[in-house]
Amino acid sequence: MTDWTTFLSALTLALVRISGMVVFAPFFASTAFPLRVKAVFAGAVAFLVAPLVAALPAAHAELSFSALLGELAVGLVYGLSLTLLNEMLLFAGQVTGVQFSFSLVNLLDPGSSIQTPLLGDLFQLFGTLVLITAGLDRILLASMIRSFRVAPMGAFAFTRPTALLIFRAGAGVFFAALELAAPVLAATMLVEVAVALLGKLSPQLPVMALTVPLKTITGFFILTAALALWPRFIEARFAALLDLAERLIAAHGSALGG
């Protein structure tokens, strides 16, 4: 009876930790997956890892309010850190859409029920494709399972420094988005300058009628050429965010060990 009770406690704690990641992390949080599929997936993974993580030396497979909050905090550290990747792609798409003269072309995001830019949705879809083809979703899941050794079950607490580091990482989203959109921004800006100079040389030239199509055509050409570099860029940002999550968990684990 004691072993069965311990298993159920470990299963519940593992399920809470994995669910926190599934709710927010890229690919796993996609609205393309029904809630029942996500629930079955999280339950299956928790069922498989519960006996293993409960047997670790420092694990505390006992249900309590603080233990549940700690497991949820670990999942949120992974989920909130990795969701910054989607925010980066969304912001890059919004900035690029303005240069493409698509600032008024928005779609309703079924996940958040808000208006999102057209190119932002396109960038997020491309980012999801990179995650799948590169196997980054499996790397994230493996890192989550390894976290049970670094931060034993029932021993993690979400502290203020951890939250502040995640918020500071959010500031880097804007710089990364500008890096991603930089080729298109530079090309379309040069088009604007060139058309403006032509307008000064020839006042009869319909500048307004030329600027929008030239910017759009040039932007699409540069964007198509830059797509070859996107997988490496997205993988690097994903690796950096995953490393941030692992360092936050490991720092707490080291503090517990000390």
Give the topology:
Blueprint (H helix, E strand, L loop, with lengths): L1 H23 L10 H20 L10 H35 L6 E4 L4 E4 H17 L1 H15 L9 H42 L5 H20 L3 H28 L1
Antiparallel strand pairs: 1-2
| Class based on secondary structure composition and strand pairing | mainly alpha
Q: Which word captures the global form?
A: elongated
Average pLDDT, all residues: 82
Uncertain segments are 254-258
Order of helices and strands: HHHEEHHHHH
* Helical content band: over 70%
What's the number of domains? 1
Number of helices: 8
So what's the oligomer here? single chain
Within the largest sheet, what's the order of strands?
1-2
Number of strands: 2
Written account of the structure:
The chain has 258 residues and is mainly alpha-helical. The chain has one domain. A two-stranded antiparallel sheet has the order 1-2. Helix 1 packs across helix 2. The longest helix has 42 residues. It is elongated and about 85 Å long. The C terminus is likely disordered.
Brief sketch in words of this structure:
With 258 residues, the chain is mainly α. The protein is built from eight helices and two strands; from the N terminus they run αααββααααα. Strands 1-2 form a two-stranded antiparallel sheet.
Question: Could you list some keywords that capture this structure?
Answer:
258 residues, mainly alpha, two-stranded antiparallel ribbon, 3% strand, elongated, disordered C terminus
